[in-house]
Prior knowledge:
The N and C termini lie far apart (40 Å). The chain is an alpha+beta fold. The strands form 4 sheets. Strands 1-2-3-5-4 form a 5-stranded antiparallel β-sheet, covered by helices on one side. It is built from 8 helices and 11 strands. It is globular, with a radius of gyration of 19 Å. Helices cover 31% and strands 19% of the residues.
Amino acid sequence: MLFDSDTKWSCRLINVLVAIFSGSMKQDLIQSPSLPKGQNAALKAESNFVSGGSVLKLEVQILRRLANKPYVAQLIQSGKREQYCYIVMTLLGESLRHITKRLGKIFSVSTQVRIGINVLFGLKQIHDIGFIHRDIKPANMALGRFGSREYKFIHILDFGLAREYIVVGSNGKPKMRRPRQRALFRGTTRYCSVSTHERSEQGRMDDLWCLLYMLAELRGPLPWANASDKKEVYEIKSKTEIDVVLENCPVQFIKFAEHLT
């Protein structure tokens, strides 16, 4: 059972302190008597009547498989009520997107590389449990909670667009999921791979392309940063040589890109 319908995380125990996100789901900073004194957590809630199926159900499945693994958000509790379902997870720190906006400057190569190694390790945790993230970007990266041992490490969060690429076959053994001839677009236009624009089935490689573009942007604007729509981004992205995209990055990043092609 993915959602616990009889959980101590009753709404009457939850005092919402600060709303930090609002969209198809709502995420809040919460404090509850069920948490250790002085510790906060993040709460995501979703209506049970949304079309297209539950995103939170998928997140719970993934977070349970990622239990106790480093560099990813951790599940604390999940629950379901008549009108909605919710998950409670570790409250992380400032997102990489907010950090880049706040600092308003180009990151050093040292910082860029350390972020890259950190996120790469987190991605490996996700890939090792049979999922691809499909939306690697600065907004989905966050520092650990301030004052914790994980404070200086980047954590991956938000698995709403994730997809399982390893499934169990009829013989009971795990196997690669058969790719679709044409897939729906999933991801963020600025960071997604060229093949994602072309509606190809995504795999682990596409997560790595997102990471590469995200890291390149830490050293300067991407060539398509000012493009106005998805089609224009695709045209620029597909025609721009990778050494131009990575011109402000260490030469080893070219090897990274060559490995992906």
